[in-house]
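STRUCTURE:
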């Protein structure tokens, strides 16, 4: 063999050399006595427990040991029910400790202590528990790419301020964790301390920022042996009452139901909702949507946000499909009209099972059933009405298998299925995913293959595949990727996708500092090149060069600057709303500059100006987002966000006509105002205000006909009114009291209104008044949820 023939082997060996520092080990101590979670740590057993200390800075100055005057000590105990954590956090200036009281899962301006627990020690997922110096709890499920704070566990904690710093005591039941059934447990664990005023974070086991992965750099927790965990069965009954009134009618509703959480074993959990009630979830942000696609809505229903990391694998699951808009519209005659078309379908029930085996196999199963839904149609000649099914009884199913290995790699299989009763559309989508990383987390290779099958009047199938190679460590990082989507790839029955029928290539390279320099704590510059080619025509669908600079100053001010250049004309294959047609989009350049001033200050402010300049007919888009926030004290704060966009000479679809596809040249303005307020009576009881006013219009001043080559020619004969004026108002004022772990009573006053018109009104004051002069709906509701532990009832 020549010396060059050894290079692939040498490369493999280098890529798999582990560069982690020696992992620290902490020994948990078994107890038989009761621990009171009072933040005092005065039980005798604490004094004889092993101590985790010698914390090291995570950011900004990675690797720097914590100073003696900020010494941090952590101890861990356990019994058959839970693990107990005590943290003593010394501070030489305790009067300067930040301690804002916030809602649960909101960090605010507070010092924070947290524990990261990986019950399988597989380097891939943490259960993270945070306590602020104000005693507020935060928790999340974390992977390398995401922290899911919609997950809420039931656990206990107490923080107390002292003359030497502050103290945290935590009780985390095994029901809040996942781990194997081995007699001797070995867990991955790390502790983090954030000192807010200094903008510093420290960890017990050093996390080297040169390495792209955080979770595999945890320490080790040993000593938990022969635990006999209790039955994990939790019942959460609820009752709620609503009174709704608008200009035409009023309605009173009373609901009662039950959520069930059952631990099949220490690794798997079943969640079920019976008689669901989502009446107090956050409102949707309605907009004037002139795009060829539906508006993508955030998921606010707890069942579909909590613990769904497995179900989100591969991006095939868009939970708003379940209980969302009906999938069909009724067929009506010329003398008929639709008098009632429900905007959503009622969810009957839902269940999910998820967990992971000792050998790293994650299994997720989700099933939901929605009710048969009708539209009402009236015959204008006879005044008779009839009903037509617009959504049959429907079953939604998601199945996931996710095998982890080598502390940082995985292979997954995902299947989603939508089955509608009767002669309606059914769908099945499957995906194979892989994410392979070198042992030292320096390089990564990941990709997927997805296949969709739709059963309707004309059955069709499609596929998507992608592959990415990345360098994921060091100051210099890069990735290159390619993907292909066939024309009939369709996941929209239980997922959401807008663009198909193209192939693309993308390259990205970046440079970052790993330790602070003279003016910056963090600094990163990123370069990206992307090309997308439409499969059928070979035309350029998208193509840009992008530069992004991100930096945080020594004074904790954040800056972000981006420049995007599209040097060639591209073609939009969706705006014409007709298969096979496309619209030419001229060359353009876009940029934005974002600034967020130090959030530790009582008054903080952020603003982001942006623009897009087109190489055609004075077409330009510019915008400004700004948001002042003032923290009056540790309990009370107000924030306001104004988001304004102006589109001059915008081009968009207007109508289908005998002359063909009609486009309009139009001016558009979009204004959104958001006001948020919080007053915390204590860390369990808050009053919250959320108000949103949105106004947008679209005014056409010239019409065109789309040609087969994608270009437009004037159409002065088209004179129909295609203008739009849209107003939306939402107001929520709520009181929430977590009176016991997992138990909450909440009161909500909500009012909202929505107004659509074909006459443009540019006076903001007139628009604002009109939305209140319309049909304003008022809702008053109260909801009580009570957490019941089966073991408490049994004992």
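SEQUENCE:
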């Amino acid at each position: 063999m020549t010396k060059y023939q050894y290079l692939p082997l040498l490369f493999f060996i280098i890529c798999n050399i582990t560069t982690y520092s020696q992992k620290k080990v902490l020994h948990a101590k078994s107890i038989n006595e009761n621990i009171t979670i009072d933040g005092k740590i005065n039980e005798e057993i604490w004094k004889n427990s092993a101590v985790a200390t010698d914390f090291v800075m995570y950011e900004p100055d990675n690797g720097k040991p914590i100073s003696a005057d900020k010494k941090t000590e952590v101890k861990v105990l356990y019994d058959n029910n839970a693990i107990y954590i005590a943290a003593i956090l010394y501070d030489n200036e305790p009067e300067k400790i930040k301690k804002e009281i916030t809602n649960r899962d909101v960090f605010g301006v507070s010092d924070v202590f947290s524990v990261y627990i990986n019950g399988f020690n597989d380097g891939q997922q943490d259960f993270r528990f945070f306590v602020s110096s104000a005693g507020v709890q935060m928790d999340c499920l974390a992977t390398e790419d995401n922290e899911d704070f919609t997950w809420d566990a039931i656990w206990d904690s107490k923080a107390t301020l002292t003359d030497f710093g502050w103290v945290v005591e935590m009780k985390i039941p095994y029901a809040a964790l996942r781990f194997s059934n081995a007699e001797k447990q070995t867990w991955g664990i790390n502790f983090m301390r954030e000192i807010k005023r200094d903008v510093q974070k420290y960890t017990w086991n050093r996390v080297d920022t040169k390495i792209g992965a955080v979770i595999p750099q945890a320490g080790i927790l040993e000593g938990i042996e022969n635990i006999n965990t209790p039955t994990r069965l939790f019942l959460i009954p609820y009752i709620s009452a609503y009174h709704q009134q608008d200009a035409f009618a009023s309605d009173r509703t009373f609901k009662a139901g039950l959520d069930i959480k059952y631990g099949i074993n220490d690794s798997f959990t079943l969640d079920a909702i019976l008689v669901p009630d989502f009446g107090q979830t956050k409102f949707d942000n309605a907009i004037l949507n002139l795009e060829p696609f539906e508006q993508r809505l955030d998921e606010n229903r707890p069942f579909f946000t909590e613990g769904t990391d497995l179900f989100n694998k591969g991006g095939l699951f868009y939970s708003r499909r379940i209980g969302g808009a009906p999938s069909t519209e009724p067929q009506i005659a010329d003398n008929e009209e639709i008098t009632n078309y429900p905007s959503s379908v009622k969810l009957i029930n839902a269940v999910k099972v998820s967990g992971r085996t000792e050998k790293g196999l994650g299994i997720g199963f989700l099933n939901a059933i929605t009710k048969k839904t009708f539209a009402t149609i009236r015959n204008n000649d006879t005044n008779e009405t009839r009903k037509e099914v617009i959504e049959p009884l429907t079953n939604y199913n998601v199945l996931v298998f996710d095998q982890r290995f080598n502390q940082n790699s995985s292979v997954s299989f995902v299947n989603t299925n939508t089955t509608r009763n009767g002669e309606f559309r059914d769908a099945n989508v499957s995906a194979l995913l892989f994410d392979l990383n070198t042992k030292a987390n320096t390089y990564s290779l990941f990709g997927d293959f997805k296949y969709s099958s739709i059963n309707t009047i004309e059955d069709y199938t499609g596929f998507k595949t992608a592959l990415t190679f990345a360098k994921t460590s060091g100051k210099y990082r890069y990735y290159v990727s390619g993907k292909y989507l066939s024309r009939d790839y369709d996941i929209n029955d239980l997922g959401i996708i807008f663009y198909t029928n193209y192939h693309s290539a993308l390259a990205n390279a970046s440079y970052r500092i790993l330790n602070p320099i003279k003016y910056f704590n963090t600094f990163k510059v990123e370069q990206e090149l992307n090309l997308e080619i439409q499969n059928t025509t070979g035309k350029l669908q998208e193509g840009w060069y992008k530069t992004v600079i991100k930096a945080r100053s020594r004074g904790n001010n954040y800056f972000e600057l981006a420049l995007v250049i599209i040097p060639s004309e591209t073609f939009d294959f969706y705006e014409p709303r007709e298969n096979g047609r496309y619209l030419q989009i001229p060359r353009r350049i876009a940029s934005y500059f974002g600034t967020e001033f130090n959030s530790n200050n009582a008054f903080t402010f952020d603003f982001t100006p942006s623009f897009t300049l087109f190489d055609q007919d004075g077409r330009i888009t510019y915008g400004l987002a700004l948001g002042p926030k003032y923290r009056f004290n540790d309990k009370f704060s107000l924030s306001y966000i104004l988001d304004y966009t102006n589109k001059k000479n915008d081009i968009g679809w207007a109508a289908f006509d005998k002359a063909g596809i009609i486009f309009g040249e139009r001016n558009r303005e979009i204004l959104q105002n958001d006001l948020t307020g919080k007053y915390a009576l204590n860390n369990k009881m808050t009053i919250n205000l959320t108000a949103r006013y949105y106004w947008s219009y679209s005014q056409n001043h010239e019409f065109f006909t789309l040609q087969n080559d994608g270009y437009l020619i004037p159409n002065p004969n088209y004179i129909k009114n295609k203008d739009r004026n849209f107003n939306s108002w939402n107001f929520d004022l709520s009181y929430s009291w977590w009176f016991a772990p997992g138990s909450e009573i909440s009161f909500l006053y909500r009012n909202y209104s929505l107004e659509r018109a074909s006459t443009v009104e540019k006076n903001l004051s007139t628009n604002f008044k009109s939305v209140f002069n319309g049909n304003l709906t008022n809702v008053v509701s109260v909801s009580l949820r009570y957490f019941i532990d089966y073991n408490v009832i049994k004992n």
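REMARK: The chain has four helices and 45 strands.
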